[in-house]
Amino acid sequence: MDDTTSTAPTADEIRAQLDRIAASDEFSRSPQLGSFLRFVVESVLDGKGDRIKAYTIGVDVLRRDATFDPQLDPIVRVEATRLRRTLDRYYAGLGADDAIRIDLPRGSYVPTFSRRVAAAAPVHISIADRLSAMRRPLAAVAVAIAVAIVAAGWAWFRLASAPRAVTTASPTAAVALPPGNGLPTLLMPSFEVSGTPGPHSISARSLQETLSSAFTHFDLVNVLLPPADRASIVGEAPTAAPEPRADYRFAGSVEYTDDGATRLLFRLIDLSDGSIIWSRRFERVAVDGDKVAAEEHIVRELAGTLLQPFGVIYARQRIKVVNGTVTDPRYRCLVVVIDSFNASDPVQQSRGRDCLEQLTAQDPTFALGFSYLAALDLREYQYGAAVRPGDTPPLDRGLTAARRGVELDPESARAYEMLFVILFARRDIDAAFDAARKSMALNKYDSRARGAYGARLISIGEIEKGLETLRQAGDEGTVLPPFEEFFLFLGEYLRGNATSAAFYAGQLTNDNFQLGLVARALAAASNGDVEAAKRAVDRLVTLNPAWRDDTRGTLAKFFYAPAIVSRLATDLAVAGLPG
Question: Partner of 401 at 20 to 30 A CA spacing, among 31, 85, 103, 455?
Fold first, then answer.
């Protein structure tokens, strides 16, 4: 669909396409992305493409101040990645038939424009008919050429995007545990306030309290208030106690201007060296009579950027684990486990299980350790990874670990999320969704808990509701996990939306992720690409022979609705899965 003619789009056509994109649901939900796109497009059309730099975008579009340093603050790279993904979603859906395509190539902030050739009207042919037709000699020649091209591009992309495992000393080496829970500590002092608020201005104190409350519900960080702030909240007299030791400081300033506008500036400071590792400016915050909604928008953006897994704080801590700065065995072990999820690496998963089992035995109050043990047990059950002969059934171990995590920290949204996914795998559906609702009630800003919920909605057959939930989670998070990307594929595939399904399958590039291989096999078969389907199926069986030996039983570990299991088993057989 990306073929172009020799006639380049005119400036008027490009601006009309820009307006069409900006008015779509995908971009109306993210006005900052719309501003980013409009800035870079208009700069090129005005002959000012040389202005398109990370610094200029950060200051002119994302409202950073003049001290903004793109090397320290990754906001431009993060927003550019979100913009590329949102453009791809637009052209896979509402914009599938648009004549003009606007792209933001990877590695650049300068957009490109192309005229798209109108696609021929779709012919509804079964997968089996397509595969049969592909065996004809002339078609086989064309396919061979196409496959060679795709394979070369695929190999390059896989090498460029392959996740890198954390290389640390063996996490099973017994060492004394430092005091505390091993998690980084975030200090949140009172905001600096200047000017006089107007009757419709956002409240600095209310925003501070909402952010503090929201941040405390994320599990990979401890949140502290200075002694004077804590005393003020509980109604005690201020004390002269020293500021507590912390790893990071979240600093905020609120400026009320004479015309009634409010400017906000937030920074995250690494207290180990005093460097500013992230900042965000909000210019002229508009309340429009709903202060709660204005606060909600700010909190969701900041929480999603800073505190989600793979957010700014976790990414910074992970670097410190790799270079040996962070030495607490509990946090180092959590990084090994989380990385094993991202890499789908059974060896790393086995290492993670070793260290978590040892650490939860050494520290029986390590609540997060029990919750992540449950997640590892679930992966062993579903993917056949890191299985140890003679072990008790993984879902039995997982249920025990998940319940222990909840008992130790009954206010943990992550603990209830892990209980949810274990109960769901055990097909205790009512109890599972009760735990899911509890998880989301404890932390309404946790997009990963919402993503887990949306994926299971699709699994039970509630396709539309599940897709809507997953898209909301994707809009708020900085990184969409492969598991959620797969269920976006599945939802579109079951709806018969081949274009969107193929897009999401193309995002699943990890050759160790079994569900990603399922998606690629199904998408390739739907497109009549026999060789690509066969490669994905062969790799799938190599990773886990259960896909060949008990296809329906393996599918049933992920999908609750029998109709989905039956549909996928049939389509995988047509795609070349033996057995």
Answer: 455
| % of the chain beyond a pLDDT of 90 | 56
Residues β-bridged to residue 114: 101
For residue 111, which of 60, 35, 55, 38 has the smallest C-alpha distance?
38
Tell the burial category of 200 from Cβ atoms under 10 Å away from its Cβ (0-12, 13-18, 19+): middle
Query: In terms of DSSP bridges, do strands 185-187 and 112-115 run parallel, antiparallel, or are they unpaired?
Result: unpaired
Helical H segments across 344-393, by residue range:
346-362, 367-383
Asked if residue 27 lies in contact with residue 21, where contact means CB atoms within 8 angstroms, the answer is yes
What was the pLDDT predicted at 177?
87
Tokens matching residue 22? 């900006």
The H or E element containing residue 282 is: strand 275-282
Q: How many CB atoms lie within 10 A of CB 491?
A: 26
Q: Which amino acid is at 237?
A: A
Q: Do β-strands 100-103 and 112-115 pair in parallel, antiparallel, or remain unpaired?
A: antiparallel
Could you tell me which of 250, 252, 241, 319 has the C-alpha nearest to residue 282?
252
The number of angstroms, rounded, from the C-alpha of 284 to the middle of its chain's C-alpha atoms is 29
User: pLDDT confidence of 136, banded at 50, 70, 90?
Assistant: very low
421: Cβ contacts below 8 Å, ≥ 6 apart? 374, 375, 378, 432, 452, 456
State the SS3 of 512-555.
CCHHHHHHHHHHHHHCCCHHHHHHHHHHHHHHCCHHHHCHHHHH
Is 263 in a helix, a strand, or coil? Answer: strand
Question: What per-residue string of b and e applies to 145-168 under the rule 16 or more CB within 10 Å gives b?
Answer: eebeeeeeebeeeeeeeeeebbeb
Position 232 scores a pLDDT of 54
Comparing 34 with 376, the larger pLDDT belongs to 376
Task: Determine the Cα–Cα distance for residues 579 and 232; give it in Å rounded to an integer.
Answer: 67
Query: What does DSSP assign to residue 4?
Result: B
Q: Out of 157-161, 376-380, 567-571, pick the least confident.
A: 157-161
What average pLDDT score do residues 413-431 get? 97
> Cβ atoms within 10 A of the Cβ of 288, count?
8
Question: 424: buried, middle or exposed (CB in 10 Å: 19+, 13-18, 0-12)?
Answer: buried
C-alpha 440, offset from chain centre: 17
- Give the C-alpha separation, 463 to 473, whole Å: 15
What's the pLDDT score for residue 5? 41
pLDDT digits (tens, 9 = 90+) for 452-489: 999 999 999 999 999 999 988 877 655 678 999 999 99
Joined together, the tokens standing for residue 556 give 């049933």
Residue 159 has pLDDT above 60, yes or no: no
Task: Report the pLDDT averaged over residues 380-405.
Answer: 92
Residue 512 to residues 162, 340, 344, 499: CA-CA distances in angstroms? 10, 11, 6, 24
